[in-house]
């Protein structure tokens, strides 16, 4: 089935977002561990554990997407507590350095922006549906000059709700003048992007950007799986 319109996620779909995080946390751990009197590996491992705790927490993760600076501070605080470190100012400094540096290190996936340009040139209406705070999401849209490709842009923090809320997908369909069965939603998050879209009858395309394949017992069964949007050929 060839879609008439496309809905796209931003982070880890068009832009490489998660990839820089592991590297950066480990760099910050190595830099600060000696002064804290803790091993760099111990601090890096605990930060990994605390990130996982935070981002899989049903309440905190929802709050954190709209307050990334606060989220990182809470993660480092959690790690410091686990390691019995009592230097809250250093913890906050590490968290804020992460927030400021991470955004600057985000890059577009190879060929992703060219693909948007190609779809746009072919007359395929596109909508961007991104969760998160407008300050961060709009800054990335501007930095990569993405607005020109989209007929409509939906940012969670501007709407007051985000994917997988069906209102996001219905709003995008309405903005593009399309029915659900004419649309594909393309994103890396199985729950928010794929499951959310499928719930309203949109074809769900999963971007497996890590190339790890579906987890055991996935929350959604994608209609199609790619490792990058550059691979997608409409009509193929
Ligand atoms: Mg994403």
Concise overview:
The protein is of the alpha/beta class and 236 residues long. The protein contains ten helices and eight strands.
Characterization of the model:
The chain is elongated. The strands form two sheets. A six-stranded parallel beta sheet has the order 5-4-1-6-7-8, with helices on both faces. A two-stranded antiparallel sheet has the order 2-3. It is an alpha/beta fold and 236 residues long. It contains ten helices and eight strands. It folds into two domains: 138 residues, Rossmann fold (3-Layer(aba) Sandwich); 87 residues. The site of magnesium ion has 7 residues, from loops. Magnesium ion binds next to loops.
Which helices and strands, and how do they pair?
Elements: E1 5-8, E2 15-16, H1 19-36, H2 40-55, H3 60-65, H4 68-82, H5 88-105, E3 107-108, H6 112-121, E4 126-130, H7 134-143, E5 152-155, H8 156-159, H9 166-176, E6 183-187, H10 190-199, E7 203-207, E8 224-226
Parallel strand pairs: 1-4, 1-6, 4-5, 6-7, 7-8
Antiparallel strand pairs: 2-3
Helix pairs in contact: 1-2, 1-5, 2-4, 4-5
The structure holds magnesium ion.
């Amino acid at each position: 089935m060839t879609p008439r319109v496309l809905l796209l996620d931003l982070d880890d779909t068009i832009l490489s977002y998660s990839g820089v995080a592991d590297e950066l946390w480990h760099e910050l751990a190595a830099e600060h561990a000696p002064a804290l009197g803790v091993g760099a590996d111990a601090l890096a491992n605990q930060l990994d554990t605390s990130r996982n705790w935070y981002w899989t927490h049903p309440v905190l993760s929802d709050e954190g997407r709209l307050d990334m600076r606060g989220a990182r501070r809470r993660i480092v605080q959690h790690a410091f507590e686990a390691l019995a470190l009592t230097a809250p100012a250093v913890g906050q400094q590490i968290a804020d350095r992460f927030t400021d540096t991470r955004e600057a290190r985000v890059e577009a996936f190879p060929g992703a922006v060219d693909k948007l340009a190609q779809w746009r040139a072919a007359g395929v209406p596109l909508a961007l549906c991104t969760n998160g705070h407008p300050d961060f999401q709009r800054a990335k849209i501007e930095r990569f000059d993405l607005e020109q490709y989209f007929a409509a842009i939906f940012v969670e923090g501007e709407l007051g709700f985000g994917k997988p809320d069906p209102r996001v997908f219905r709003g995008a369909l309405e903005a593009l003048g399309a029915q659900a069965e004419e649309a594909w939603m393309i994103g890396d998050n199985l729950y928010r992007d794929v499951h959310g879209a499928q719930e309203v009858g949109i074809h769900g395309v999963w971007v497996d950007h890590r190339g790890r394949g579906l987890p055991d017992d996935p929350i959604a069964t994608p209609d199609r799986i790619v490792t990058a949007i550059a691979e997608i050929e409409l009509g193929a």
